[in-house]
Amino acid sequence: xxxxxxxxxxxxxxxxxxxxxxxxxxxLGGGTNLVDHMKLGVASPDLLVDVTRLPLDAVEELPDGGxxxxxxxxxxxxxxxxxxxxxxxxxxxxxxxxxxxxxxxAATTAGNLLQRTRCSYFQDVTTPCNKREPGxxxxxxxxxxxxxxxxxxxxxxxxxxxxxMAVAMSAADAVVTVLGEEGERRVPLGxxxxxxxxxxxxxxxxxxxxxxxxxxxxxxxxxxxxxxxxVRDRASFAFALVSAAAVLVTDGGHVREARIAFGGLAHxxxxxxxxxxxxxxxxxxxxxxxxxxxxELRYGQPLPGNAFKIPMARNTLAALLRELxxxxxRR
Length: 331
Hints:
It contains twelve helices and twelve strands. The strands form three sheets. Strands 4-5-8-6-7 form a five-stranded antiparallel beta sheet. The protein has a four-stranded antiparallel beta sheet with strand order 9-10-11-12. A three-stranded parallel beta sheet has the order 1-3-2, covered by helices on one side. With 331 residues, it is an alpha+beta fold. Helix 5 (89-97) runs antiparallel to helix 8 (165-171) and helix 10 (273-279) runs antiparallel to helix 11. It is globular, with a radius of gyration of 20 Å. It starts with a strand and ends in a 5-residue tail after the last helix. It has helices at residues 12-21, 34-40, 75-80, 82-87, 89-97, 101-106, 109-114, 165-171, 189-192, 273-279, 286-297, 309-326, and strands at 5-8, 25-28, 47-50, 59-61, 67-70, 175-180, 183-188, 211-217, 225-231, 242-251, 254-263, 270-271. The longest helix is centred in the last third of the chain and has 18 residues, at 309-326.
């Protein structure tokens, strides 16, 4: 690990100003992703601005019944929050499905959103990786790509975003509040992340020095049921091969509204708008659930090593929708 400077932030404005003024600076939260990458030589900030002491660690109820989640709220605290568990089961379930208890105790809301891909080539500095070193190539395309993208990839990068939390937040229509030199702005989660295109080194649409201060969850529709389902190679502490988050509202045996997001399939949480459209007004049942999945997955472009993800995603979404439609939601 290279030498670096360390500075605890005293307030949000000075934290933003310090990082903005120094191109090699980075914010430090729980450090569960950044510190790993520093040890591997993937990241080499010359200054870490510690934001964990800032007053951003509260979960607040909003007047409309939604929630505001502070950037430094720990994943374990958020998963256990009574308001979150009762109003947004999909998010509590996603948080508990991610990482180990020890890591959830350290990881923060903002850090979870900003964690980088766990692609083995990205984390191995001896291999070419356009995300780590633009223009060097993508070793995963012709290499081991079992975990990699089947939607939204490019010839420059096929990595996937690792967050469980972000997938659930996508289905919940979350909005991210960020603070920069020019003030505060609100970014819908669907606009927060980028697909790789020809600039895979950029994961988000944040400018250098912009600090996430909170995430807001609008209230789910009346009568909505929500859930998260994750398929992985082992029962704990494993990233998703495929995951799905859904919000479902039914009326008289039909789907009135559906919000769906996939994880493990793309460079970002993948909002399944084609599947949502296919479900609206459909008769509840296995046929409708699978047709909705196919409406989204027909755009997939799998590689030989991950072609299994297409049927796996179809089955995962169908199982989740079946649970939400016909079984009392877990509390």
